[in-house]
Amino acid sequence: MSPSLRTSYRACREITRCHARSFYLASHTLPEAKRREAWAVYAFCRIADDAIDLAPDEAARLAALEEQKALLARLFSMGDTATGDLPPWGLAFRDTCARRRIAPGFFEGLLKGISHDCGTVRIGNWAELDLYCYHVASVCGLVMTHIFSPQPSAELLEHAAALGTAMQLTNILRDVGEDLDRDRIYLPAYDLAKFGLSEVDLRAFRPEGKIDPRFRDLMRFQIARAREWYLLADPGIAQLPADGTRRAVWTMRLLYAAILDEIERNDFDVFTRRARVGGWRKASLLLEA
User: Rounded to two decimals, what is the model's pTM?
Assistant: First the structure.
């Protein structure tokens, strides 16, 4: 490995360490090559998401989206020996995609999903939310599976996509209040109406977290849905190589699913309290994994 490529992989490691503590922790059970490649893929996903999500206004978000599309095209069109004007993580990302034969279409799908976060977000029904989860999370699971398992089967990829959906649903349920402040509501309007709720009700809950039985019932329904997706993913995790890869993915699965437990422990207040898995609980889940 050239010095410049080694430096690029180190940059990916730092991005992962700073922005994805649970993933960074879990990744240390992976073999060295898989670990650095997982960091490289995460680096692109994190940087792209932040560039769009943290833009100050709609025009800036759209501009950031186009910039990420152009950067992705450049990363995949450059020759093997070209370096060009790449971000610090760029060489490692290119090297990983080349080694694992990861097609650009996965990342184009990711950018398509992130584009739905531009401006106001409203989700009509489960079909819309399912598609959103696929683009922003399941696609990442599919890419990681190409790193974790050589020549993954269609069945294994299906399980990986399910895990991505489960983890994204967990994110959505944890961040209801924060997303509301950004004028983003990922809870489907159909589900809200089913439990007698509206956007007005959500905004009334936000200031002090004084929720009512309707919202608790809605959250129980959504948490049950997320847990069903974790169960759909589990057979795939069991098929992963026993070189530390299986343990790493089990760790992530358990840590994320535990967020749902914390939401329940907080009496479903996702408006004034952020569900977090404490250190002792993390330690016990690591042992379980």
Answer: 0.92
